[in-house]
Amino acid sequence: MADAIIVVHGGAGTCAAELHEAAVSGTRAAAAVGLASLFDIDPDDPDACVEAAIAAVRVLEDDPTFNAGRGSCMTSAGELEVDAGIMRSRDLAVGAVAGVRDLANACELARAVMEHCKHSLLVADGARRFGIERNVGRFSRELVWTPKAQQRFELAMTGAMPADNRADTVGAVVRDRHGNLCALGSTGGVLLKLPGRVGDTPVIGAGFYAHPELGAAVATGVGEAIMRRVGCYELLRRAAAGQPIQQAAEQLCAEIHAADGAAVGFIAIDPRGEVAVAHRSEHMSWAIARDGAEIQAGLVASTTRRGP
User: Fold this and answer.
1) 177-186 pLDDT, tens per residue?
2) Residue 132 CB coordination number (10 Å)
3) 5-298: what CATH class?
4) What is the pLDDT of residues 90-106, one digit of tens each?
5) What ranges do the domains of the chain cover?
6) Rounded to an integer, what distance in angstroms lies between the CA atom of residue 23 and that of residue 11?
7) By the 8 A CB rule, do 148 and 155 touch?
8) Structure pTM?
């Protein structure tokens, strides 16, 4: 049996000072819930890693501290459009949704696409209809809107606050006791994005990826910069080629940031259970939970840090 591991993040970017404590406690809580779920599931369940990832990300989506689900950023039109993507290693199954309005738990809808749809990515009204037909997803502006999101929208619209490089996206990577891997990301997008804009989060290989021989990774930050590098696949490819996964994550973050000045971060687990937490941004809340060990969590992961 493999050691169970879950790593979560609360978004690379700038986290407002009044949210620092909440961001760390929120990621810690999500990691704890995800790890606990692994031991509440039938040990023979091949999708234990999926259940754990969903459990952890649901905690983050429901926490208004973060920009996913409840607390998502508004578009330039004042709407709330969310994205999510999930992948499991055992069969390379994938599901993603993008540009879905007023959806509180995008991770659940992405999973439904993975498990019950012949397609891998559904968008906008098509994704909404699929969710309603399957009775999956909670659709309501009241479930997604928060005073924080409204205030930031108004400040950014007037130019009183920059819209770029705000902490965005939440995600989890999991290895269960059978060594199966899952990667899951969910986001409310970037502040003042054009309606219909989609970043890296629901794009396979860029925002998330899981493979039995490569590992699992989830990205966060400015999606346009991450997509250009197919970030998660590139990170896992470098690690599979022999570079330690933490070093590979740090180097890729540095390259993306140097080229674009963009906030960027990655969390990852390789098939041996080595963990990476790296970012180039002012903040990225994160937490690591392992079976039998104390949960580690923080708001900044130093680029010189080696391992958890």
Assistant:
1) 999 999 999 9
2) 11
3) alpha beta
4) 999 999 999 999 999 99
5) 5-298
6) 9
7) no
8) 0.95
